[in-house]
Please model this.
Amino acid sequence: MGKIVVLGAGCAGLAAAYELKQKNLDAVVYEKNAEYGGLCRSFMIDGFTFDTFAHVNFSKDPYVISMLEEKTDYFIHKPEAVNYYHGHWVRNPAQNNLVDLPVEERISVIEGFVNREIDRQVHNYDEWLRLQYGDYFTDHFPAAYTKKYWTVEPKELETRWVEGRMYQPTLKEVLRGSMTKETPNVHYTKEIHYPKKGGYGAFLKPFADKVEICLNKKVIYLNSLDKVIRFADGEEVYYDKVISTIPMTELVTYMENVPEEIKKSADDLEYTSGVMISIGLNCDNVSPELWFYIYDEEICPARVYAPNIKSPANVPAGCCALQAEVYFSKRKPLTKSMEEIKEETVRQLINMGIFSSENIQVVDVRMEKYANIMFTPKIYQARERVRIFLENQGIVCAGRFGEWDYLWTGQSIVSGKKAAERVEIGEYFREENV
Model:
């Protein structure tokens, strides 16, 4: 077998190249950025370490554990989070931890839960939410958050992605959580892991060090007939086989003679983009928990996490840090500059009483074009058409944006491993209906 090109040095691409190297196959990873890691990379500013959005590992897959944790020291956390809602801090998930809301609000949530239509038909995410939680809770909590995190109304999303991600309490659990703080932790995982040093990206280093990575290599052209890839710096590389973890929406734009129906399917694949506002503070921890969600629509961030709680090594001695996430998309484009978002986010967190302006040591703002897959009704048929087209061109897809799926880190690593195995045995063509 000749040269195998892996496009993208996120965790899926790195895992694919690592597996191929283990089998003594010639694999090289090409990454458009100046560093590897994709959305799992970490960065440092004036002694503060931040991740590219919030990451932890909770996979129980033995392969994932062998890749991430057997060579890296890590902390173990019991996942706890809180929600900020109109000046109130409510334990997460809010649906069975209502006790810190005003009495009248708790009554409204419970009434909505009891009176919900339990035999209603579910055609979209909005209807799924109302079936599970009732109208009042849906309108004030998950629907409000959906507009901030997913950038759309809940009715614009389908529901297959939800499984295992949102807790569905019984009436007894709702009532108990409205009267006492003594409720069980019902997070979908009971334990999360995070590297002791180097940020989340440290988990990738042991196997990234074993593969050949070419950085600052942005693809601008791919000819699957001649098996050649051209990069923005002018270099051309010929390949025998290729694994792509770059967004399939972009990959088809680099290729010639793509059928119009495939271009249309690629256009139907939607995603969110994200702005990260990273704040280093010269004081002890200010965050109520490892991370928190913000439901108020007028406050920019949807989610904020505390790097110092994940690992004390993420901050200088005597300091703490926060990273806030603001999301946008073509359906909800940014209306402010990055600098304006940074300044407004800092001001809003100060107004929430999280920290004061005197505490600020460093503030950084940066953007990622691809943050999350958006599960609109068209996603399944559209992505399958594009996948089959790419695989008919001899391109194996892997990773969150390569496969176009809601994959966590561990799932992306397994996706990369499977892609390597498929390349090795020459399995390309999918037999799924579209």
